[in-house]
Amino acid sequence: MIRNTSISSFINLIFALAFLSIFLTFAMFIKYDKEKHDQNLQNRYELIAENFLILFQDNPDQNRLNQLFKKFNVRPIESRDRRLEIINHAEELTITQNYLGTYRVYKYDDTYYIYVQQYGYNIMLKDTNHHSYNMAFITIGFILALLVFLFLYEILNRKLRPLKILNRQIIEFSKGNKDIKLNYTGNDEIGTIARNFNEAINIINNQSKSKDLFMRNMMHELKTPITKAMFIAETLDNEKTRDNLQRAFRRMDDIIKELATVEKLTSHNTMIYKEKSDFIFIYEKALDLMLISKEKIVEDIENFELEVDIYMLSIALKNLIDNALKFSTNKKATIVANEDFIDVISKGEALSNSLDYYTDAFCQEEKRSSGFGLGLYIVKTIVNLHKFKLEYSYKDGANHFTINLKAN
Questions:
Q1: Which of left, alpha, beta for 392 (phi over 0: left; psi -120 to 50: alpha)?
Q2: Residue % of the chain over a pLDDT of 70
Q3: Mutual orientation of helices 7-56 and 62-72 as an angle, nearest 10°?
Q4: Distance, CA of 135 to CA of 310 (rounded, Å)
Q5: Can you tell me the distance from the alpha carbon of 346 to that of 368, in angstroms, rounded to the nearest whole number?
Q6: What pLDDT does residue 152 have?
Q7: Which of 33, 179, 363, 367 has its CA 20 to 30 A from that of 75?
Q8: E runs forming strands in 148-292
Q9: What sign has the CA pseudo-torsion 207, 212, 214, 215?
């Protein structure tokens, strides 16, 4: 799970756990500190109460009582009504009874009171010191820790922000935008990656331009002599030699056409120009590209309208029919078409590998060495550009290559 988590998400998770740890640490500290505060108060009031209980055994005069009041910073509550009000309404924190007497601790309006009782002595003392638990220092400490935490988080996010921009630009480049340039000038690791990536983009662009120039020049230079050679072959008297030469030149011409199609399809700037058309029109255009009649094809076609790049889909259909005729055992093909799918069927053995194997460029089996290995690659590329799906199945001794028009 952690392997598949992005760096930013992982850092957010780490900081979230760190924040939770800080919060829990302060919460535990506050709990412990408050318990310690309450325990100190308990010890103080126990000491005060025991001192007064001991003093009561000696029948003290007012002077000795005043000395004790001053020593512990307490003041007696003289009003009986006030004492009753505190007893009836205050929060009783503790009650302790021992051989000297009994004392209780009350809290009322954020003030603490000690009520001491011993055989005829009955006194309520008000603690004049302020003992309410103060959260100010702890709160300030928590806020400072939180500010430092957020400061570090922001610094780390700023450090990672160029990496996110770098990722977006790499994705743009992978989509075909070859003019991407990473404008990060830092000297850290991200800056090194950006500079190296810019160099890689320049190398790739130069190689791509060289390849495109080579392909165009090669196809242009080969096209003219092949055309001339085909005309010269027509003038030969020997029919067998003429047919062999024309077949060879046509094959070379087909290779150039397929290479041109592959070059166009593999370009990231490939665009399809969709327009509405009847399927029959596309089908007949595919047959025209093959230069064959319909005699070898069994048709089960329902004419329907679809919005596609007519030329490209014609090439895809031409390649499927051409493969079906070439590799069928009876040299015939069946085409079934309706608004849901286009199915090209031919008798023969099932494919020995998965469809993906045959849709790789220049893929061939030994028994199919007469092909260029580009036909199904071109078909799949065109089908994918239209958001359709190329599927394969083997039924009743026949191969079915299907363009699923409803794949989405």
A1: beta
A2: 83
A3: 170
A4: 77
A5: 15
A6: 85
A7: 33
A8: 275-278
A9: positive
Question: In the predicted model, what is the mean pLDDT of the chain?
Answer: 80
Question: Which has more confidence, 213 or 114?
Answer: 114
Name the amino acid, one letter, at 25: T
| Long-range residue pairs from 95-100, CB within 8 A, at least 24 positions apart, any chain | 96/46, 96/49, 100/50, 100/53, 100/54, 100/57
Give φ, ψ of 312 to 5 degrees: -65, -45
**Which DSSP letter does residue 294 get?**
G
Distance CA 334, CA 9 (A): 54
Q: Is 69 helix (H, G, I), strand (E, B) or coil?
A: helix
DSSP 133: P
DSSP 8-state secondary structure symbol assigned to residue 368: G
pLDDT higher for 82 or 229? 82
Two structure tokens written together for 381: 């590329």
Sign of the dihedral through C-alpha 89, 116, 33, 128: positive
Tokens of 196: 């190296």
pLDDT tens digits, one per residue of 65-101: 888 889 888 899 988 888 888 888 888 888 888 888 8
Indicate the burial class of 365 (C-beta count within 10 angstroms; 0-12, 13-18, 19 or more): middle
Which residue pairs from 287-291 have beta carbons closer than 8 angstroms and sit at least 24 positions apart in sequence?
Answer: 287/318, 287/321, 289/314, 289/315, 289/318, 290/318, 290/321, 290/322
- Rg (Cα) of the chain, in Å, rounded? 46
Determine the Cα–Cα distance for residues 5 and 7; give it in Å rounded to an integer.
7
Rounded Cα distance between 402 and 406, Å, is 11
If you average pLDDT over residues 138-161, what whole number do you get? Answer: 82
Q: Starting at the edge strand that comes first in sequence, how are the strands of the sheet with 341-347 ordered?
A: 297-301, 333-337, 341-347, 398-404, 389-395
pLDDT value at residue 347: 92
pLDDT interval class at 118 (50, 70, 90): confident
Asked if 176 and 269 touch (Cβ cutoff 8 Å), the reply is: yes
- What's residue 393's pLDDT? 93
Specify the length of the chain in residues.
408
Max avg pLDDT among 4-13, 88-97, 224-233: 88-97
Q: What is the rounded CA–CA span in Å between residue 17 and residue 22?
A: 9
Q: Which one, of 316, 333, 317, lies nearest residue 325 by Cα?
A: 333
- Look up residue 254 and give its amino acid: D
* The two structure tokens encoding residue 33: 């500190």
Helix (H, G, I), strand (E, B) or coil at 379: helix
Name the pTM for this structure.
0.47
pLDDT at 271 over 90: no
SS3 317: helix
